[in-house]
Amino acid sequence: MARITLENLAHSYLPNPQGEEDFALKELNHDWIDGEAYALLGASGCGKSTLLNIISGLLEPSQGRILFDGQDVTHAPTAERNIAQVFQFPVVYDTMTVRENLAFPLKNRGEDASYVARRVQEIARMIGMEDVLDRRARGLTADAKQKISLGRGMVREDVNALLFDEPLTVIDPHMKWELRTQLKSLHHEFGHTMIYVTHDQTEALTFADKVVVMYDGRVVQIGTPEELFERPAHTFVGYFIGSPGMNVLPATVTGHRATLAGHEVALGRDFGRPEGNVALGVRPEYLRLGAEGLPVTVKRVEDVGRHKIVRAELFGQEISVIAAEDEEIGADQTRVSFDPARINVYANDWRVTPQGQGGA
Amino acid sequence: MEKTVNQKAWFLVLPVLILVAFSAVIPLMTVVNYSVQDTFGNNQFFWAGLEWFDEMLHSERMWDALGRQLLFSGIILAIEIPLGVFVALNMPKSGFWSSLCLVLMSLPLLIPWNVVGTIWQIFGRVDIGLLGHTLDALGIDYNYTQDTLAAWVTIVVMDVWHWTSLVALLAFAGLKSIPDAFYQAAKIDQASRWKVFRYIELPKMMGVLMIAILLRFMDSFMIYTEPFVVTGGGPGNATTLLSIDLVKMALGQFDLGPAAAFSIMYFLVILLISWVFYTVMTTIDRREG
C-alpha cells in the first residue's frame, strides 16, 4: 500500500505535442492518499484511462513524475510497481480453469502452493464462484468472466493500489450493486488504495470517498459526493453530476444581486464583480415552480416515479425543475423561484467563491 | 397460410447443378468407370471388377509413393507451422513496416506454381543458379538432379519458401484480433513472455492455426507442379510424390484402369485424413470450451 503522488504529470499521444490541446492529459498535480477509495469520473475520452494506465505503468507519461511513497517510479515497468488492475472487458486465460486463473498472479510471483490454494479459495468465496473453480474459463458468461478478472485483481494482498477501469460495464445491473458493495467492503477490510474509473455518476458516488471529476484531459474537481453536488467547481461538474444536471443561466452579477435578462435575482452571498462569461448555476432540486419569481413556460413533465422532472423555458433557455411527485403542475405555475443559498456563480465556467467564505 | 406451389423454382437451381455435374460429378464418375474396366485401345472396354483396386493395394510402387507423400507433408507441416507462428510473432504489429512485411510476405503466394518450380529449378542449378553455384563454391556437394537428399532439401525449402507466408499471415490475423487488454493484464499479472504466448497468444490463434494446418496438409498432399518442374520426380523415384506417380501412370503409361483406381484411393485417403484431423481438432476445441 502506498501514497501515490503525481507531479506535473501530463501525457500526449503525439510525438511532438505543441499546444495544450495536443495533450490527452493536461498537467496535473495530485496526491492519492494511502488507503482511500477514489472514483475517477468523466465522459468517454476525457483522459481517465490514460491517467490510470500511467499510474499502472502501461503508459509512460510525456512529462512529469509519479512517486510511490516518495519513490520515483515514472520509468519503472508495471511489474515493479506491484499494482493490480481490472479492465473494462473481461480478460481471462481461456485455456485455464477458474482456479488456475485466480492463482496465476500469485504463481507468477512464486508464492508457495498452500498459500495460493488458501487465497484462491477466499477470493472464490468473495466473488461467489467456489462451485465452478474447476471449470474452464472459456465457456463462462461475460459477467462470470469479469468476476474472474476482478478476483484476479484482488488475489494479491500486498498490492500498492488497486485500479479499476470501468470494470462493471458488462455486468448485469443487480450484480453491479452486489460487486460494488463487495469492493467497498474489501476496501474497508484491507485498506488498499483504490482508484475506480467510471463514467457512471451513481457508481462513482456510491463507491468512493473522494470523486475526481475529469473533463477534457483536466481534473476539474476533487471532492466528496456532497461537495460535488452542492458546490460544483466547474459547470461541467454541475452538468455531469446530478440527474438532470445543473441549470446554467447566463447573467450579470454585482455583489448580492444577479440580473437575468433584465430581471433581478437575489443571491444569498456576496460574489463581488466577476468578469468574463458569467452564469448562475442552480440545481433543478433548488428551483420551485409557483406563483412568484421569474416567468417560465412549462414544456413537458416527465414523471420518473419518485419525483417529476419539469422541462421549461426561461427567457428562451431550457431549464429543468424537479418537483415533488404529489405536486400538481398546473397552468397557474408560470413562474419559477430560486433558493438563494443554493445558487452558485460561474465566471468562464469556473466557480466564483463568495466573498468572506474562504474555500468553501 | 396458403403456400403457392411453383415448380419453376427448380430452374433457379439448375445452373448450379449443371456446373457441379460438369466440374465434379461427371469427371469423378468417368474415373469410377475407368477403374472397373480394362482396355486394349481401340476404345474397347472390358469389365474388370475390383481387379485394379486389388492390384494397386498390393503395388509396392503406390505404397512407396504414399510413404514419400506422407513424409513430405509431415516435414513441411513441421517446419511451416512453427516457422509461420514465429514470423507472425515477430512482425511489426502496425504502421508502415507492418504493411511492408505483409506485402513482401504475400509475394510468394501470388506466384504461379509453375513459375515457383522454375525459379527454384534454376536457383538450385550448380552451373548457373545462385544457390547451387554458391553451395558448390563453398565446397558443399549439392546436386539435386543426382543426390536424393539434395533433391528433398530443395523441394522442401521451396515449399517452405512458397507457403510459410500463408501460415504467417493467418497467424498474424489471429494475433491482431487479441485486444490490448490481454497483454496489459498479463503485465499486471507478471506473466513471462513464454506464458503470454502459451496462455494468451496460442489459444487465441488456435482457430486460424487449425485452418492453416488443414489447408497446408491438403495442398501439400496434392502437390504436383512445383516438385515436378524441379526434379521431375527424380533422381530415380526419390521425389515421385503421389500425384506425380499418378500422372506418370495415367498419361505416361496410359494405364487408365490402375490409375483410375489409384486416384480414387488417393481421393479417399485425403478425405479420410482431413476428416480425422478435423474431428480431432474440433473435439479438442469442444472439450476446452
TrEMBL record, chain A:
Source species of the chain: Palleronia caenipelagi
Domain ABC transporter stretches: 4-241
Record field: transmembrane: none
GO MF term set: ABC-type ferric iron transporter activity; ATP binding; ATP hydrolysis activity
Protein family per UniProt: Belongs to the ABC transporter superfamily.
UniProt xrefs under PANTHER family: ABC TRANSPORTER ATP-BINDING PROTEIN (PTHR43875:SF14), MALTODEXTRIN IMPORT ATP-BINDING PROTEIN MSMX (PTHR43875)
Protein name: ABC transporter ATP-binding protein
Gene Ontology cellular component terms for the protein in this record: ATP-binding cassette (ABC) transporter complex, substrate-binding subunit-containing
Domain of life the protein comes from: Bacteria
InterPro entries, A to Z: AAA+_ATPase, ABC_transporter-like_ATP-bd, ABC_transpr_FbpC, ABC_transpr_MalK/UgpC-like, Mo/tungstate-bd_C_term_dom, NA-bd_OB-fold, OB_MalK-like, P-loop_NTPase
Pfam family, one: OB_MalK
Keywords: ATP-binding, Cell membrane, Membrane, Nucleotide-binding, Transport
